[in-house]
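Hello,

Our lab assistant flagged a job as stuck in the queue for most of the afternoon. It eventually completed. Since we weren't sure the result was trustworthy after the delay, we are filing this so someone can double-check. Below is the sequence as submitted and the structure that was eventually returned. Let us know if re-running is recommended.
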Amino acid sequence: MRVGLAGAGRIGAAHAETLRGLADEVVIADADAGRAQEVAAKLGAGAANGVDELFSSGLDAMVVTTPTAAHADLVIRAVKVGLPVFVEKPLAADLDGTIQTLTALRGSDVPVQIGFQRRFDPGHVAARDAVRSGRLGWVHTVRSLTLDRVPPPDAYIPTSGGLFRDCSVHDFDAVRFVTGRSITEVTATGANHGPGAFARSGDVDTGSAMLALDDGTIAVVSATRYNAAGYDVRLEVLGSRDGVVAGLDDRTPLHPAGDGYTPSGPAHGGFLERFAEAYAAELRAFVDMVARGTASPCPPEESLEAFYVAEACEISRRERRTVAIEEVRR
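-- returned structure --
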């Protein structure tokens, strides 16, 4: 199998390394041709001088890890020429772009997989299995959090889409994935305590959202850009008979206020480290999907559903009110 990879940045380079062990050949392209050649040389992979050359290099599948603005066009282009495609979230930069992209893909049987890696994280999968088995009893509360160790560069913030669309969208998808339920309404808030870059962009550096699920379950999602103790992603599912948590181990940057358990390992520095196993698993699933001709394990419609929740949260935060998902659904 010959797989093309568009985008040789941080996550692209990590995916290229994984793909090198899964595919017969990997060909890498980037807007910076020198960077593509550098990553390819390190891995013994091929390099193309731009995406046009990449598309004409006899590919069997495409992986898109470019900046967000290029995602939609590359996905549509790949599907039109019959290439199964994996694309990092989001499918497009905003809600309108996501809907337009899905409209362009409608009617095609070429599979598209969205990179919501938490669906492949062992802890999140185990939590989902616990819910499905019924051993937790009826689920009454879900808590999901994403705490970044350091904020993104200031230049990234104005184009990020905001905390809920850029960061918490992973939590929204994880809540839907683990519970198997739909989110019906949200109430969100946010604050700024760090330097002013977020406030200047109309964004927040810390936020929380309370989500109502369609079976009456309550979910709470929290996020911050400032958690210097370490990168921390956890999800708790609390039921009438038992509870489970994904992401709690000896590297969780959390300490008891008094005597008690203390983490023994170093905290995760960032998402590539925390989700290394999940990133590898989702690419294995993609390559297997291409080889077997099976359905996508995370189709693009899932990206739209998570984006609806993020959009509703942003409206709720700005307007200080509860927002039903049907209000933003199109």
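-- support follow-up --
The delay was a queue issue, not a problem with the job. The result is valid. The CA atoms of residues 59 and 281 lie 21 Å apart. The chain has a mean pLDDT of 96.
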